Amino acid sequence: MACNVSNVIGSPNGVSRHRPFDRWFRYPAGFSETTLRAAIDAARVKDGLVVDCFAGSGSVGTATPFTQADRSTQYVGIEAHPMIAELAAIKLKQPAEPPDLLLFIDELEGAVEPAPVPRSAVPDLIARSFESSTLADLLAWREAIKRRSESEWAPYAKWALLATLRDVASVSVGWPYQRPGRARQAPYADVGARVRARASMMVEDLIQRAFGARGTVVSGDCTKADTWKVALPDNAAAGCVTSPPYLNNFDYADATRLEAYFWGEAATWAELCQHIRVDMLVATTQQTGRDAAFTALEQLEAVPRFQGSVEKLSLALRSEREKRKRGKEYDRLISQYFAGIAEALTCLEARLDGDGRAAWVVGDSAPYGVYVDTPGMILELASEIGFEPIEDRLMRSRGQRWRTNGSRHQLLLSERLIVFRNPR
Ligand SMILES: C[S@@+](CC[C@H](N)C(=O)[O-])C[C@H]1O[C@@H](n2cnc3c(N)ncnc32)[C@H](O)[C@@H]1O
Q1: Where are the domains of the chain?
Q2: For an engineered disulfide with 366, which of 196, 296, 328, 411 has Cβ 3.0 to 4.6 Å away?
Q3: What is the pTM assigned to this prediction?
Q4: What fold, for 4-94+210-421?
Q5: Ligand 1 midpoint to CA 193 (Å)
Q6: Widest CA span of the chain, in angstroms?
């Protein structure tokens, strides 16, 4: 493949607890500062519109190029998780008077009326995650915010409250998944004080963004051309900076189950899949199916060389699955995942300016010890779709901590920045 492969080791990844805007809510998927900078630089966009088709909580859109006065860059994100799309979208709005958010919090505080809540009135996960008095406070705040939903500040207050949930939970709710069976001392007790602290951070970040924001985030599925029509109604994009889900079985819907159940977006697993996960790329074995995998492999007939690579890996994964009693269906996942990536790349190819560059951050994986070079394969796929591969750069090594786990594979994994351009 005609592209440079270079090695630059960056800092560990993950959304920052301290970086402005990232600290509003610790979404377990964001970029580290080093990776973010490298990806934005690699896309080489000085003017025009940058699309982030797997936008998550919007780390790209809140980074400096989109807030500098001397640039005319614009940001458009597409995000399939509807709640996270809302979070990213409010980060990109620039309210005229950010300190008014704190007046709104004062008003809410006056209106909050905690009352005992029968545990049966909330989903089991919520009932088990908080002490009774904390739960009563949280629900009273929730209702006060919902009563004022017409206010421009309501979504900010909502996210200040949602980010408070993990601060005041009395069970283990560390990322990625919530474990209501494992008790712990809640790090904070006062719901109102935590909501106010988050709201103050939001005000600080909004004020410090000297030149306002230039961007928006659309909630939807980036593998569908219709979503791109909404995201980019008249424009093509000058560049793309993004990070798709990795092929590592991480479930973005499940990871935010606490927030979704608490806010009432879903009350059961089926509702979570229906309301939160419906537009997401298939990236976990829980989302796979035999017929869907077969259809996905057929879809890849349009890119025959790549289809061959997927088929080979799928066979190796099937053979590993069959050695296990209740093996996971990685063999099906792999075709569905890459068929989704192929659709997203095809949409991007139709929308990216001639000579426009795409910079994607992606990790590889090794389910059942079968190595899947996801970044390399995406470059191979992009090239067969019509892009020109430019670079494959190592940003970080991953997986060292699994090496002590005898039941895991021993392969060292990586996170890489891949760059490709539209040669049109
Ligand atoms: C690696 S994360 C990106 C994180 C992001 N850089 C941030 O700042 O938070 C991948 C994101 O892609 C989203 N996603 C999955 N399938 C998608 C699809 N079909 N269309 C748009 N977004 C999708 C996931 O919900 C997740 O938020």
Answers
A1: 4-94+210-421, 100-200
A2: 411
A3: 0.93
A4: Rossmann fold (3.40.50)
A5: 31
A6: 65
